[in-house]
Write a structure and sequence with these properties.
Elements (H helix, E strand, L loop, with lengths): L1 H42 L1 H4 L19 H12 L10 H11 L3 H13 L19 H6 L1 H4 L19 H13 L7 H5 L3 H12 L5
Helix pairs in contact: 1-5, 3-4, 3-5, 8-10
Length: 210
């Protein structure tokens, strides 16, 4: 009888520990989500909207669904004056100010929050033609870092390109070509003709998110 009571008490104890662990983990996850939302609300929402879809007129891109490692990488670059410092980049200069007000924990929280947001479903805003086959220049010059389906490559620090609208992709390629923004292999971008750039972007924005 005593042995049975002991075993029963042991089972209850173990269940209590498991339940407590689940509760603590759930509370910690909720805290991260809440803090990420607060950082986003106070620093990002005015330009990128509550949906993360951005405002073209402010040169604020869609950021919803970007992986947190890329979000934190870019925010650190803004903080270190490695991005956004060009005289002709007002949006980048504003991002520098915002990023420098955030601590490392803030970056982690907001990165996770942005990653959790639903991806922009309407990325073809310029009525670019439908292209279903990856352009040869993309496969030759871009796929090594961004993936064969523009899905990104964390090891190469190449972000997914399937989260951004066409206007922003075109603007960033132009910024790389003109030196307003640095790129690890700018010579390849500089060699692209306008028609090749548009073909690459048209193909990217036509890729459906899985």
């Amino acid at each position: 009888m005593c042995g049975g009571a002991f075993r029963f008490s042991h089972v209850i104890f173990r269940l209590t520990v498991i339940f407590w662990g689940w509760t603590v983990a759930g509370q910690a996850e909720a805290e991260v989500a809440d803090r990420g939302y607060v950082v986003y609300r106070d620093n990002c929402r005015d330009c990128h909207l509550s949906t993360g879809m951005g405002i073209r007129e402010m040169n604020a891109p869609s950021i919803a669904g970007l992986p947190r490692w890329y979000v934190t990488d870019q925010l650190r670059e803004f903080r270190r004056d490695q991005r956004g410092g060009h005289d002709d980049d007002a949006a980048g200069q504003l991002m520098q100010i915002k990023a420098k007000s955030l601590g490392e924990r803030d970056l982690a929280f907001v990165g996770r929050y942005i990653e959790s947001m639903a991806v922009n479903p309407a990325r073809n805003t310029l009525d670019l033609p439908t292209i279903v086959t990856p352009p040869a220049r993309y496969l030759a010059d871009c796929a090594g870092c961004h993936g064969e389906q523009a899905e990104g490559n964390r090891r190469e620090r190449g972000p997914p390109l399937t989260r951004q609208p066409d206007w922003y992709l075109l603007k960033q390629i132009e910024s790389f070509q003109t030196g307003r923004r640095t790129h690890g292999d700018a010579s390849k971008l500089e060699a692209l003709a306008e028609a090749e750039v548009k073909a690459i972007v048209a193909w990217i924005v036509g890729i459906k998110e899985q």
